[in-house]
Design brief:
With about 425 residues, the chain is α+β, with helices and mostly antiparallel strands. The protein contains 15 helices and 7 strands.
């Protein structure tokens, strides 16, 4: 994912519900990369006697700030004569563009490739303690030269911009695609047919998990298209996954693509989170416990139950509006057709006036009763929709948590309302 850095100009792992960027720490000098031995870069019979450049891939480990959670990477081209190394970094954008915020929210983001000295690119990572590794590649001289020329042409101002997509077209996939072209498509052929079983959701939630609000954004906001099992080729939207894939990649002649892997900067922060399994049974236990408590309160202390339910309904309605906007009003395609709308939707806002009146010992009204039944019914429908799909949206844990809560509120508050209505009729002369 793209990495925001230095004066709000660096790319970030794009979160589709907010546009936030921060001032970066001051950069300090980083050591220059050593010049390669002449024996490694001299090319017999190269055009005009020019030796081929050395090609490497920098992989930066995740940081502690939310926009650094996905790591970063870049392609390095090192001059074989002078040893000067240039970093080709696809993670830059211009936050001062007039319509930047509106485009960011709508999912129409414009990033660019920037070529800069490696020493400058590494300075920030050294300052904050993020580890950086270098994979020097063993490319044929003609392929290395063609890749360097293509990157230089791509970095020209008129060619540098591209439309950013946080899963399909980001700083890491751009690195992957450039290397695949240099290898004649061999990288894709090897990675497209294998899978670790990861999904866009599982990787996003895993890497965002140190920031609870961030993993909630991804887990609630991503739709079913984020849950298809990925080939390793698509795993490469995460820079660290691409680095692992390169370690096992082979050229057409069977030789390794990676000639050498070295640690450029030591990682001094917590390592990236590992995969974890989210057990929906724990969420069900929590949902049942909350549901039983609300059912008891709804029958015996409906005012308190309604008071507790008001913020819950307000949040459900707000999240529903956001999910609908992402689906119908933005290009964030991985948030479309989100089945969490069955659990959290704008209908919840219809409960607020009646819930407020109920909390003040007044009649809730017919709209309240209808909306309450609708919320519980849609939550039950989510179970049916989940069971129909061959590859379902991975929201079973949200269904397990929220269905008992919606059902308990509907059962207890409506039952209390019917009881109160019967008593009122009996007392009428």
């Amino acid at each position: 994912m793209a990495d925001l850095r230095r004066g709000l100009r660096r790319g970030a792992s794009a979160a589709w519900v907010l546009a936030l960027w921060c001032m970066a720490l001051a950069a300090i000098a980083a050591p220059a990369l050593p010049a390669p031995p002449a024996s490694e870069v001299a090319v017999q019979g190269s055009p005009e006697g020019v030796p081929a450049p050395r090609i490497g891939v920098l992989t930066m480990q995740p940081g502690e700030i939310f926009f650094e959670r996905f790591g970063h990477n870049a392609i390095v081209v090192q001059d074989p004569v002078s040893g000067a190394a240039t970093s080709f970094n696809f993670g830059y954008f211009d936050p001062y563009e007039a319509d930047f915020v509106s485009r960011f929210v709508r999912g129409v983001m414009r990033y660019r490739l920037l070529a800069l000295p490696v020493e400058e690119d590494l300075a920030y990572y050294r300052a904050v303690g993020r580890g950086v590794s270098m994979q020097w590649l063993d490319l044929a001289p003609a392929d290395a030269r063609a890749l360097a020329d293509a990157l230089a042409e791509n970095a020209r101002p008129e060619n540098a911009y591209y439309r950013y997509d946080y899963f399909l077209d980001n700083c890491s996939t751009r690195v992957r695609d450039a290397l695949d072209r240099a290898l004649g498509g061999e990288l894709r052929r090897q990675l497209q047919t294998r899978s670790r079983g990861n999904t866009f959701r599982s990787e996003a939630v895993r890497l965002a998990s140190p920031a609870p609000w961030m993993w909630l954004v991804f887990d609630i906001g991503l739709g079913p298209s984020a849950d298809r099992p990925l080939p390793i080729w698509n795993d490469a939207f995460v820079p660290m996954r691409l680095a692992d894939a390169l370690d096992g990649a082979r050229r057409q002649d069977g030789s390794p693509v990676v000639h050498e892997r070295v640690e450029v900067l030591q990682h001094r922060l917590a390592p990236a989170p590992r995969e974890f399994e989210r057990r929906w049974t724990r969420w069900l236990a929590a949902g049942l416990a909350i549901g039983v408590a609300l059912a008891w309160l709804g029958r015996r202390r409906p005012r308190l139950a309604a008071s507790l339910a008001l913020p819950f309904w307000a949040v459900c309605g707000l999240l529903g509006v956001l999910m609908l906007y992402i689906w119908l009003g933005t290009d964030h395609r991985f948030g479309w057709a989100n089945q969490n709308l069955l659990l959290m939707n704008p209908l919840a806002w219809l409960l607020l006036p009646g819930g407020w009146r109920l909390a003040r010992s007044r009649g809730a009204g017919r709209v309240f009763s209808t909306a309450l039944v609708a919320m519980a019914g849609l939550s039950a429908l989510a179970v049916f929709v989940y069971g129909l799909q061959v590859v379902p949206q991975r929201n079973a844990h949200w269904i397990a948590l929220l269905l008992p809560i919606h059902a308990a509120l509907a059962w207890s508050l409506l039952a209390r309302r019917r009881t109160a209505g019967k008593l009122s009729k009996q007392e009428t002369p």
